[in-house]
Specification:
The complex is a heterodimer of chains A (315) and B (202). Chain A has 315 residues and is mainly alpha-helical. Chain A has three domains: 1-64; 72-172, no CATH class; 173-315, no CATH class. Chain A contains eleven helices and two strands, in the order ααααααααββααα. Chain A has helices at 3-34, 39-64, 66-87, 95-114, 118-121, 124-139, 146-169, 183-207, 222-238, 247-275, 290-312; strands at 211-213, 217-221. A two-stranded antiparallel ribbon of chain A has the order 1-2. In chain A, α3 (66-87) runs antiparallel to α4, α3 runs antiparallel to α7 (146-169) and α6 packs antiparallel against α7. Chain A is globular, with a radius of gyration of 20 Å. Chain A starts with a helix and ends with a helix. Chain B has 202 residues and is an alpha/beta fold. Chain B has one domain (2-199): Glycerol-3-phosphate (1)-acyltransferase, CATH 3.40.1130.10. Helix content of chain B is 39%, strand content 17%. Chain B has nine helices and seven strands, in the order αββααβααβαβαβαβα. In chain B, strands 1-7-6-2-5-3-4 form a seven-stranded mixed beta sheet, with helices on both faces. In chain B, α1 crosses α2. The radius of gyration of chain B is 16 Å and the shape is globular. Classes of the chains: A mainly alpha (315), B alpha/beta (202).
C-alpha cells in the first residue's frame, strides 16, 4: 500500500465520522427544540460539541503526520496526569517525584516512540520510573503514608503516560504489507474503544435493567455491557479493511478492545469512588475530564499493542 | 504592547500548569467596583486570580502587594508595575496611613485584590487576618467585598521549591458583602474569615 491509499482511507474515515457527528448535532438540535429545559438533552448536546472538537483535533493530527500525533498524545498524557495527581494523596515531599513524572518521564517516553526505540520504550516507566520514584520519595525522608503516596505517583505515571503512550506506539510496528498504514491501527483502537463506550451507554439507556456494579458505577448495566460489546465487535468486523487482520481477527480484536475498555472504565471508576469524586475534572463540558474520556483506552491500548506486535509485527 | 504580550504569556502558562477553572458561584463578572479578598498560599495566586477575570475587569483590578518584596530586583519591579499594575504597600511604614495607596486606587474607581492574611500561608488553612480590609471597608462602605477561594495552588509551588508542578486549581468567587453599620473589627474579620472558609471545597 502506498501513502496515497492511506491518506484516502483517513479522509474516508474522517468524512464518515464528521457525517455521523453532523447527524448527531441535527438530532441534538431537534431534541433541544422539543425539550428546551431537559438536563439530559443539554448533556447530550455538550457531549456532541465535545465530539466535534475531539474529531477535528484528532483528525487534524492524523493528517498532519507522525510527529504531530505523538505530540498530541504527549499532551493528552500531560492533561491526564495533571488530573490524576490533583486527586492523589501526595504531599509536599512528593514535589520532586512529581517534577520527574511531568518533566522527565513523560517527555522521554514520547521521544522513545519518536525515535522508535522499542527496547527502552517498554521498560522506561515500569523499571526506571518505578524504581526511581520510590528512591526519590525515600530520599525526601517523609515516611508518613509512604506506600500510599509512592503507589499513587507510580499509578499515575503508568496509567496516564505508559498506557496512553501505547496508542501512538502502534505506528512503530512493522507489519508486512501494511507498512505505511500503521496509523490506521490507532484509528481502529480509538474508534472501537469509543464506539463501545457510546453503545454501552445507548443500550444501557434503552434496555438496561440489571445493574452490573452498583457499588462502583451505578449507570453500568448487564444489558448495556452485552449490547456495547456486540456492537463494537460488529463495527470491528466491518472495519477489517483498514486493519492488517482478517475479518474474524478484526472482530476478535474489537471484542478484546471493548472488553478491556469496559474493565478499564470500571477500575478507574473505583479510584474515583475512593477519592470521592464523580469526574476527574471539568475539562470537557459534558464529558468531565481527560481521564474520564480516555480511561477505557488506558487499558485497551497496551494489550492491543502487544497482541498485534506478537502476532503480526516483525519488530 | 510588550506588557500585554507578557500578561497573556503568564496567563497561558498558569492555565497550562493549573487549569485555573473560575467558578462564579456567588456573583457575576460585572464591572462594578469591588475588593476581592482571597486566601494566599502561592506566588501564583495573583496570576491565577487575574486569569479568572475577563480582560475588561482585569485591567481595572489591581493587586495590593508588599513593597519590600516587589521592589527588590528589576524583574519584580517590572512585573508589579507594568504587568500587574499593583498597589504597593510598605508593611513597616513610617507613614501615618500605610493603606493610603490602596485608598487612592479605590478613589480612582479601580477594583482591588487583597490577601488579608498578609503573607503566604502553608495552604489548606487560613492564617489570622490582618485588619487592613476592615479599614478599607469602613472608609469605602459602598464598595462590595467579594470573597475568593483559590484552591490547591500551594501544591503547585510549595515554599522552598523553585520549579512548579502541574496540578488543577480552581478559583471560586463567593457572594459579595459589606461591613454592617457599627460592626467591630473582630466581628467583621470573623465575617470575612467565614465567607472565605465557606468557599473552600471539602
Amino acid at each position: 500500500m502506498n501513502m496515497e491509499t492511506r491518506t484516502r482511507e483517513v479522509y474516508w474515515i474522517l468524512g464518515s465520522l464528521l457525517a455521523a457527528v453532523s447527524v448527531a448535532s441535527v438530532v441534538g438540535f431537534l431534541l433541544r427544540r422539543a425539550k428546551p429545559d431537559n438536563g439530559a438533552v443539554a448533556n447530550l448536546n455538550a457531549r456532541i460539541r465535545a465530539w466535534w472538537i475531539i474529531i477535528l483535533v484528532g483528525g487534524g493530527a492524523l493528517l498532519a503526520g507522525r510527529l504531530p500525533i505523538i505530540l498530541l498524545f504527549a499532551f493528552v498524557s500531560f492533561l491526564a496526569l495533571r488530573e490524576f495527581v490533583t486527586q492523589a494523596p501526595v504531599r509536599r515531599a512528593d514535589h520532586s517525584a512529581l517534577f520527574l513524572c511531568f518533566f522527565v518521564a513523560l517527555p522521554v517516553q514520547y521521544v522513545l516512540i519518536a525515535i522508535g526505540w522499542y527496547g527502552l520504550f517498554s521498560i522506561w516507566i515500569p523499571v526506571y520510573g518505578f524504581l526511581g520514584l520510590a528512591v526519590v520519595a525515600a530520599v525526601f525522608t517523609d515516611t508518613q503514608r509512604f506506600l500510599d503516596r509512592t503507589a499513587a505517583t507510580q499509578w499515575g505515571l503508568i496509567v496516564c503516560v505508559y498506557c496512553v503512550s501505547h496508542i501512538p506506539a502502534l505506528m512503530t510496528l512493522t507489519i508486512p504489507g501494511y507498512e505505511s498504514r500503521t496509523p490506521l491501527l490507532m484509528v481502529f483502537l480509538v474508534l472501537i474503544t469509543q464506539l463501545s463506550d457510546i453503545f454501552q451507554y445507548i443500550w444501557g439507556k434503552l434496555l438496561g435493567r440489571h445493574p452490573l456494579a452498583p457499588a462502583i458505577s451505578p449507570s453500568k448495566t448487564v444489558e448495556g455491557l452485552i449490547g456495547g460489546l456486540l456492537s463494537a465487535t460488529l463495527f470491528g468486523a466491518l472495519l477489517w479493511q483498514i486493519t492488517p487482520f482478517t475479518m474474524w481477527q478484526a472482530a476478535a480484536m474489537a471484542l478484546l478492545i471493548a472488553t478491556l475498555g469496559f474493565l478499564g472504565g470500571l477500575v478507574m471508576s473505583a479510584i474515583k469512588r475512593d477519592r470521592g469524586i464523580k469526574d476527574w475534572s471539568q475539562l470537557i463540558e459534558g464529558h468531565g475530564g481527560m481521564l474520564d474520556r480516555i480511561d477505557s483506552l488506558c487499558f485497551s491500548a497496551p494489550v492491543f499493542f502487544h497482541l498485534t506486535r506478537y502476532f503480526f509485527s516483525q519488530t | 504592547m510588550m506588557a500585554a504580550f507578557i500578561e497573556s504569556l503568564l496567563i497561558v502558562f498558569v492555565r497550562l500548569l493549573a487549569g485555573a477553572q473560575a467558578r462564579w458561584q456567588g456573583c457575576g463578572q460585572t464591572s462594578e467596583q469591588r475588593i476581592y479578598v482571597a486566601n494566599h498560599s502561592s506566588h501564583l495566586d495573583v496570576v491565577l486570580l487575574f486569569s479568572a477575570l475577563p480582560v475588561a475587569l482585569r485591567h481595572r483590578t489591581r493587586p495590593i502587594a508588599a513593597a519590600e518584596y516587589w521592589t527588590a530586583g528589576p524583574v519584580r519591579r517590572y512585573l508589579i508595575h507594568s504587568i500587574f499594575r499593583g498597589v504597593l504597600i510598605k508593611r513597616k511604614s513610617s507613614q501615618l496611613n500605610p493603606l493610603e495607596p490602596a485608598a487612592a486606587a479605590l478613589r480612582q474607581g479601580d477594583s482591588l485584590i487583597l490577601f488579608p492574611e498578609g503573607t503566604r500561608g502553608p495552604g489548606g488553612v487560613l492564617q489570622p487576618l490582618k485588619p487592613g480590609i476592615f479599614h478599607l471597608a469602613t472608609w469605602f462602605p459602598d464598595v462590595d467585598i467579594v470573597p475568593v477561594w483559590i484552591d490547591n495552588s500551594y501544591r503547585i509551588l510549595p515554599k522552598g521549591f523553585a520549579i512548579p508542578v502541574p496540578l488543577l486549581c480552581s478559583i471560586t468567587f463567593g457572594t459579595p458583602f459589606r461591613r454592617q453599620d457599627g460592626q467591630s473589627q473582630e466581628q467583621f474579620l470573623a465575617d470575612v474569615r467565614s465567607a472565605l472558609e465557606a468557599l473552600q471545597p471539602c
